[in-house]
Structure prediction request, 1012 residues.
Amino acid sequence: MNEKLKEVITGAQSANDRVRESSERTLWSLCSEDPGATCTSLIQIACSFNMAIENRIFSLLSLRKLITMYWSAGFESYRGPPGIGGEGKRMIRESLLKLGFDDNQDARLKNCSSYCIVQIAAVDFPDEWPTLVDSIFDAILQRQSLSALYVLNEIFDDVVSEEMFFHHGIGWQTLQLISRILNSPESPIQAKTSSAKLYQTCLLQLQSPMATSTPEYKHLLSNHIRESVPLLVKILKEYRIAEGVELNTLDLQRALLSCLNTIKTGFPKKLFTMESAEDLKTFLLESFRTVAELCIGENATSDPDMREAANEVGIKIVSLFAVLMDTLTENQNWNIIVESFVLAGMVSDEDEECWENDFNVFATKETGLSTTFTIRDESEQFMQGLSGFAYNSVFDALVAALTYNESSNWKVQESILFFIQALCGNEDDEASQDIEKIHCLLRTLRELLELNGSHILVKTRCLIALPKVIERFMDSLENVKALVKEFLFASFSLGRQTSSHIIKIGCLISFTYYANFAELDSVLGPAAFEEAQRSVSAIIQDLLEEAEDDTPSVLLEALAPTLSSTHRSAETISFYQLALQLILKISSKDPSNIQVVLEAQDCLSNLLKNISTEDYVTYSKTCIPLFVNVLSGMIENKYSYAPIVCLTLEMLTVFMKRKPADGFLPHDIASYVFEPLSDILINSSDDEVMQLTSDALVYLISNSEPRQLLPYLNIVLCDLEKLLSVETSDSGAMNVGTLLVVVLEKFSKQLQEIYPRILEAATKKFLGAHNVATTENLVYVFCYLVSLNPAEVINFLSSFTNGPQGQSVLCSVLSKWLESFEVLRGERRIKENIMALSKLFFQADTRISEIYVNGDPIPYSGDVIVTRSMAKNMPERYTRITAYQKIVKLFVAELDFQTSQTDLEKYLPSSARKVEHSTSSNAEVDQEESDWEDVDDVLEYEQLQHFADQDTFSNSQGDEDLILGVDTVQQNTRDLLVSFFKEAASKNSNDFKTIYDNLTENERRILSDNLV
Prediction:
């Protein structure tokens, strides 16, 4: 067998396709005939030092695949007996451990072996392989095997469950092993690093509820953490970062810092003593400067691996320092802290050169779209998270450093400005600043802008920081409008005069920040706003040619606020024509960039908002022919997909959505675009193209006069047929429900004869859909139909069957509908579903009451320990309850969610809160509070019914007034649900008393709390 297998292995690696494919077939054939012999031969070859390393690796890779097919039924792809056999398994396990624990083996061999060990452990450990952990511990302690330590890490990541960790004692054994390695002076630094990484995994297990499930566990955990923190700090100090530091030291520091961070944030504060915190803070600040110098400045390392590692350690230091902030006091030496952060926040020489050579890189970084994350970025987040005296102390120190800075180093200035900007993005209510200090800061910023000697990046940072400062302290500043106007036009002046593209892009970013908090149209007035429009468009045109990557989206984001003016006149029409041209030019530079597409849509939507038919036609003449040409080109050239086509469809959808304020879409325009859209939809096989086309058609049909579209009704039906067909994927048919409802609304009379066929096709599409969004969209059809006539919907769905068992479609639809409710998104959709399901509930139809659906999940109660991989493959089991019970349970869960939503006001900045308390309103509140009855416990049904009867929801307005859509539903979601439960309880609809009595105690408590 071995000799033949060696030939097969050699052939399977041949460059000749025919030889390789033939050898692979032979290998699978051999294994199929005798999996035990083949797999044991493969492991023998892998262990043979006489074989070429490539052949040994190939043997292990083959074994890795074959294990899933012939080892045990624990693998999804298991092919059944005879399998490998008990003796073969024993031999393979032993050989894999021998290879995987040998530090002298080739790294690729060790990695393959480790993979196989973990793979087998996932199904065999602990029952079939009880000695695994003992073998690993033995290799680590007796042979100091780093490879075994690596395997142990992998086992803990993928195999060890909470049950194994705690009840089988594996966790506590491993913690002792980690402590022993970290404490031992003989342990190499690589072993300490690997142990620290393993400890991080163990800490996650120690945060689980099981870690404190018994007094014994609580005591063990408390003692362990108290001992662990000083040990970790001690090792940090032993391997402190200094000049000439090695990569191994940085790796160890990174792992230790992660562990300390997890302990500080994931366990009770008292376990992290003040003594340890003080010791650690001093060390972190010292290390922070050293690490920063490795990344930035004259002494920065040229080794990219070292720089990356130092950067990651710096990020970990800042992250840990942030969670230690609760141990700082007002007497802290904040100047030292600020100096350390300013040093770490300085722009590196590489970044300076890169930004000055390519402003696009700067734009990407400044807008938060960069893929790189540095110490500077983490420090920015640290500043944004400060509060109270820490915020005030750091802000004071930064302002003083900027105002009285005598350093000639522009990088220090820019770093200070960067962190002031970050602090001003922090909306902490406790922070308060002396107004004179703010005026002093604004004067300094103005001087830096006007100073000829200021570095380009300092000027740019001033531009970007200014609107953040004004916004942060606008409640304290006098005449904010004048300040905004002054600094805005100072930035425009600088942006239009300079040749620096960095300053120009900084000017545009600054403008978007002003627009975020100020209604520039009213703040500036018509004349000044027109000047702002001209300045923004001029700067955009200066940058347009060289704009790449993320810059086009920045340009569009800056253009959008200039299009939101309510003061449009004949004098400004030329600007809006130019803006439309800019939108088209900028977006076409990178049509595949999603951010560009979104910003272009926003700009176009602003441009078309509330305009007359005359202006709409004017803008359409510029764009619509271009759009139709692109769509026609796609049809003629039979493209399946093109980014420019998708962009065109997105923009066309905006035109269809933003109909003129004084009427429907102009007939000529609707007719001009209808056929190209339908042609694309009918002929396309691309999901995204079908989604976008159907979306455009929804708005085209919805915003057109029905009589104008009558000639196209047959084409519309062809579009629906395409989307409802089984050949169209769920993703491609994502908007079919919305399109169908719009068509039914517009052409209900014309479609009466084929109504049932259309709805039957929609029902089948719904039942076959797996995509959540498509399912949700098709549920909208049933919501719409139920809003019109729930009884007819029940009759229709009961009139035909589904599947070989002849089950009523009503049962299948309702079961899936209720399942989809649990993952429903968006307030409007939730309201529509609540209203529709409520109507079905109050129909009290026996055909619905006889339908049983999945209720609550049934927890696993067997004796076998379930690993993560086993849990994935185990089917979930549920209780069975009636559809009416399910509706109630879903509504209770939604009511709980709606009630538990935190008051939004606490998230609002102080500047946005306007609280006025009058004597009379307070008196009213007192009176209201006195009317509340205390309900301390879960209500019995009769009590619940008593409260419900006091305020029963009235249906006096009639069913015809219950129209779907947020605009026509005045009640919020919670009130809709409360109204439902009050009516159900007061009338005992569908034997609501029994349903209520069968709810869990928590569910009844939710109802009691909300109905009383």
Summary: Residues 148 and 178 are 13 Å apart (CA to CA).
